[in-house]
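Run log, item B.
One chain of 209 residues. Sequence copied directly from the ordering sheet:
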Amino acid sequence: MTEQTLMENLKSTTRADHDSAEGHDFQRLLFSGQLPYETFCDYVGQLFVLHKALEDELKLAASDERVKKVLGDWQFQEGFLDKDLTALGRKSAECKPLPATAKIIESIKATSKKHPIALLGYHYVLLGSKHGARMICPNLKKSYNLEGHNGTLYFDPYEGKFMQLWGEFKDSMNANHLNESETAEILDAAKKMFRSMGEIGEGLHANAA
């Protein structure tokens, strides 16, 4: 039997967590453009806080060549989210983490200190979310009367080039030489991120109720 690549391992190992995260009512309402406008803005704010925390740690972890060769400037989302928040009438500096967001940020920082290579597991989940995010842009623009990239840049910033970029990301992830422990840490980080995204959605949904 051919040994799984890291990306194949990530996909198969986290499938249940992925499906669970996407099964929440919050995700259903987000995808259909039925979230209240303020809740959608709050969600973009939580994404900003989360991405900034992760990307700050990834940049530090790039001292490891295995992390550095995976990363590319195109992967960093903080700038996209900052522009979206401005378009939505929010200030990124005023965004504060919900309890669920603070929890995963704490996990990210702990991972950065102990197993920085495992940050790639969190990164895999958030970057991979573009597969679905780019498909919901039309609903978001229609529901919230948004034009161009205003307020939705994060969800589809690559203008049809994402699959090519994702392929490059996959290749660089798979090219890394990892021991069994490092692979396990990356898988665990990815599972935590999927669970966290579900919890963040639940928190926002509860606040809107």
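Observations after the first pass:
- The chain has a mean pLDDT of 95.
- The radius of gyration is 17 Å.
Flagged for discussion on Thursday.
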